[in-house]
Specification:
With 475 residues, this protein is an all-alpha fold. It has 18 helices and no strands. It is a multi-pass membrane protein.
């Protein structure tokens, strides 16, 4: 069997939008309102932070859309950074996707899937005698092992599905997304119209805490919201498989992010109308509760618990699938250039990067064993905003480097919108170091492992090049 070397351009605008939204809507829409309420103590400020995070995400998406329209190719930012900066920075980005950003996203989503399944069908305890085993007092690999094992099995299953080809994975995302939209629509409709809903009281002046809302508290709350918005840039990884990529990627990103902002504002308004901020704070303190489950339970009782748990299962299944589908394409692009493990450059008969999917699967499964949901998500957001800022800065650099290039899309509000995005990324980076030092340190350590790996891959490149030259001389 000959190994295919080129990807198949089979995704139109509709499937681009599906992949964008499918990569965004995951666990955050159900879980993150509680930590935000605990940080801000105000329903109004919670919604403001959801909106602010959505606007900042949209600013980043619009900037990304200009760069994607100009440079669209398989690998997303990895391909862009080679032209904006250099190969070393592009590699550090791709390595960061592999070590922390995308693989940890897959791990955390699959973890919430397993938690939701456990709430419907209790999973039998496993390896309880090893639950206190720890590595450096930070990682507890065998704690909640029954949940972690289900998460690992989900990752393995979806890896196998996506080895069947990009359209198989994209169509699965479409079907799941329709179910998710229906479920969220039911929550909003029945939640806001139920007798338990009290929008007036939830958003009244008397509901606001006397505690002042600090700049740092807003940023910390937005860290939670950004996890819910995380994933819109993943469509860039599939640039080599999108029809008319330089137009469809910018359009798909913009339509997808705007759609998600509207959904998030509606559904979080519903949660806040059903549950007072004080109750959401208690949910966060409990650690093992999901805000959406408690909100739906308040007007539908046990039946509501089952309904929302099944919806979370479907949503996290879909988002995990979309993330598995898109992420491995960057490692495929890197491997083709000798900057990743060589076998990751091979395609199978379905023209899917099967080995890249396998490498991703193995590391994501190890990350499931490494941490908790919130630890993983804070680590992801810290890392990803370094690169959101870098892509946005690229808008300014490319306008100077390539002033006459044809741009299918130009970012609205230039230069103000890109400047706001760059400054915000820098502020969030610094704030995370102050308020989440452990997660920031772990994330940075994983990113920096890319430095020795870059030189190792480059050394292998030189050896292969020398061996190839010698072979030509001998022939």
């Amino acid at each position: 069997m000959g190994i295919q070397r080129e990807l198949d351009r089979s995704l139109g605008l509709r499937l681009v939008i599906v992949v964008v939204i499918g990569n965004i809507i995951g666990s955050g829409v159900y879980k993150k309102v509680a930590p935000m309420a605990a940080e801000l103590h105000s329903a109004e400020w919670v919604l403001i932070c959801w909106l602010l995070a959505g606007v900042i995400s949209l600013f980043g998406a619009l900037c990304n859309a200009e760069v994607a329209g100009l440079l669209a190719d398989t690998g997303g930012e990895y391909a862009y950074y080679k032209k904006i900066y250099n190969r070393f920075f592009a590699f550090i980005y791709g390595w960061s996707l592999f070590t922390v950003i995308q693989t940890a996203a897959i791990s955390s989503l699959s973890y919430v899937f397993a938690q939701s399944l456990h709430s419907i069908v209790p999973l039998p305890p496993m390896l309880e005698g090893l639950s206190d085993f720890t590595i450096s007092g930070i990682f507890y690999p065998f704690a909640d092992f029954n949940i972690k094992l289900v998460a690992i099995l989900l990752i393995v299953l979806l890896t196998w599905v996506n080895m069947k080809g990009v359209r198989t994975g994209a169509w699965l995302s479409t079907a799941i997304l329709l179910l998710v939209f229906t479920g969220i629509g039911i929550i909003v409709l029945f939640g806001l119209s139920s007798s338990q809903s009290n929008i007036g009281e939830s958003f009244s002046v008397s509901s606001v805490s006397n505690s002042p809302v600090t700049f740092s508290a807003v940023f910390t709350a937005m860290l939670s919201a950004f996890w819910a918005y995380q994933g819109w840039a993943a469509i860039g990884f599939l640039g080599g498989e999108v029809k008319n990529a330089k137009q469809n990627i910018p359009r798909g990103i913009t339509i997808g992010v705007l759609t998600v902002i509207g959904i998030y504002l509606l559904v979080n308004m519903t949660y806040l109308s059903l549950l007072p901020v004080s109750v959401l704070e208690q949910i966060h303190a409990a650690g093992n509760k999901i805000a959406a489950v408690e909100a739906v339970k308040s007007f539908w009782g046990y039946g509501g618990t089952v309904f929302i748990s099944i919806l979370i299962l479907i949503t996290t299944f879909g988002c995990t699938n979309a993330t598995v589908l898109a992420s491995c394409r960057t490692y495929f692009a890197m491997a083709r250039e000798g900057l990743f493990f060589r076998k990751a450059a091979d395609l199978n008969q379905a023209q899917a990067p099967a080995n890249s999917l396998r490498y991703q699967c193995i590391w994501a499964c190890l990350l499931v064993l490494s941490g908790t949901f919130d630890q993983l998500t804070d680590m992801i957001i810290f890392a990803v905003f370094i690169f959101y800022g870098s892509t946005t800065l690229g808008v300014f650099i490319l306008r100077r480097k390539m002033p006459n290039a044809v741009r299918p899309y130009k970012v609205w509000g230039y230069p103000v919108v890109p400047a706001i995005m760059v400054l915000f990324c820098a502020a969030l980076f610094l704030n995370t170091i102050m308020v989440r030092p452990r997660e920031a340190a772990i994330g940075m350590a994983l990113i920096l492992t890319g430095i020795p790996m870059y030189w190792w891959f480059r050394k292998n490149q030189r050896k292969e090049s020398e061996a190839s030259s010698e072979k030509k001389v001998l022939n």
